[in-house]
Amino acid sequence: MRRKVFDLLASLGGVVVVVMLVVAGALSMWGYNFANSSVHSQLAQQQIVFPAKGSTELASPKISPYLDRYAGQLMTTGPQAKAYADHFIAVHLSEMPYGGVYSQVSNASRANPKDAALAAEVQTSFQGTTLRGLLLEAYAFSVFATLALWASIASFVLALVMAILVGLGIRHSRRTPDDAELLTPPAAAPRPQPNPV
C-alpha cells in the first residue's frame, strides 16, 4: 500500500473520530444544561429558604456547621438540597420518636390507633422523609449534571487533540512522495564472499 494512501485513510478515520467526539461533547453539554436547569427550577419552585444566620434553628451543633454558609438563601442547587436534607430534616427526624423512621412510627401508630399524638407523628415523619428523599434526588441529578459537564469538556478537548493529529496526518501525506510504500522490505544484505586462500 502506498504511504500517501495510508496517511489519507488514517486521517479520514481521525475525522470520523473528531465528529463523534464533538457530537458526544454536544450531547453531554445538553445533558448538563437540562439536568442543571431542571434541578434549579424545581427547587426554586418549592421556595425553601434556609433559616437566617443566628436563628435558633441554626444554633444546633448538628446543623450549624453545614447550613451556616447557606443562611437566608433560597434553595436552588443540588449541594444546598443535600445539606438541607442531611443536616436539617434528618436531624429533626432523628429527634422524633422512633428516630423519625416512618415504618417504625407507622407500626407503632397502628398498634395504638387511639393515640392522636402518635398519629400526628406518622404524618410528620412521612412528610419529612418524603421531602428528604426528593431533595436527595435533586442532589443526585445535580451530580449527574456535573459528570455530564466534565464528560463534555473531555470530549471537546479530545476532539481538539484528534483534529490536530488529523491536520498533521494530512500535512504528512502531502510531503510524502507519491511512490513511497508503507512497508518497504529491508534491503538485502550483501552476502559475504568466500576468502580465496
Word description of this protein:
Helix 1 (3-46) runs antiparallel to helix 5 (116-175), helix 3 packs antiparallel against helix 5 (116-175) and helix 4 runs antiparallel to helix 5. The protein is mainly α. The radius of gyration is 33 Å and the shape is elongated. It is built from 5 helices and no strands. It has one domain (3-175).
Key terms:
mainly alpha, about 70% helix, about 200 residues
Total domain units:
1
Tell the overall outline.
elongated
Uncertain segments are none
Count the DSSP helices.
Answer: 5
Arithmetic mean of pLDDT: 88
Helix and strand composition category: mainly alpha
- Number-wise, the strands total 0
Helix content: 55-70%
Distance between the termini: 47 Å
Furnish the topology, listing elements before pairings.
Elements: H1 3-46, H2 64-67, H3 78-94, H4 102-111, H5 116-175
In short:
The protein is mainly α.
